[in-house]
Amino acid sequence: MKVEKIETSADPIQKVPGEGRRRPESVLVVVIDSDNRILLLKRQDLGFWQSITGSLKDLEYSAVEAAIREMAEETAIRIDSSHLIDHGVSYCFRIHSALAWRFADGVTHNTEHLFEVRVKPGQPIEINPDEHVDWQWCDAAQALELAWSWSNRMAIRHVTRNACSLATT
Question: Which end of the chain is more exposed for a tag (fewer CB within 10 A), N or C?
Fold first, then answer.
């Protein structure tokens, strides 16, 4: 697994989460349609735009299983593993202070695994109102402008760069 970028402002301390705490490992799924538009969701709690994201729930969950679950939970799009493109890229980042309470004491960093899902234009989206308040399809430039986190912007660049190279070969 390739780790493309790591914040090094502090040494990450990773522990197994305690009861009711999240595992510091997650997925980021960039959903892109065949018109090369990227789906972004606006978070309900912090109000920023992002791709589909979510923590791995239990130690037995794989990143693939988490990506499938998050697609269904956040967009009502049902997929199986054949729809996922695993880019073999992970990002390690410092956990946002407003979200630190979700993790065990001393956990400061999260590892996020990048996936891509391709859909047809006009794919129906049903957001989970407990998590998101809005959604939109964006071209790459707009998605890069709106996406809040650096890891999401890196993921969008990675996915769109690979899509362009595939289209020209």
Answer: C
Unique residue bearing structure tokens 């914040």: 7
d(CA 129, CA 57): 20
Q: What is the CATH number of the domain that holds 154?
A: 3.90.79.10
Q: Bridge partners of 132?
A: 43
How many domains is the chain partitioned into structurally?
1
Asked if residues 53 and 29 have their Cβ atoms less than 8 Å apart, the reply is yes
Confidence bin at 163 (pLDDT 50/70/90): low
Distances (CA, A) of 4 to 39, 113, 123, 140: 22, 11, 30, 20
Least confident of 2-11, 133-142, 146-155: 2-11
The closest of 128, 103, 118 to 162, measured between CA atoms, is: 118
| pLDDT at residue 130 greater than cutoff 90 | yes
Phi, psi of 66, deg, nearest 5: -65, -40
- In what helix (H) or strand (E) does residue 159 lie, and over which residues does it extend? helix 150-167
- Residue 54: give the domain boundaries: 2-167
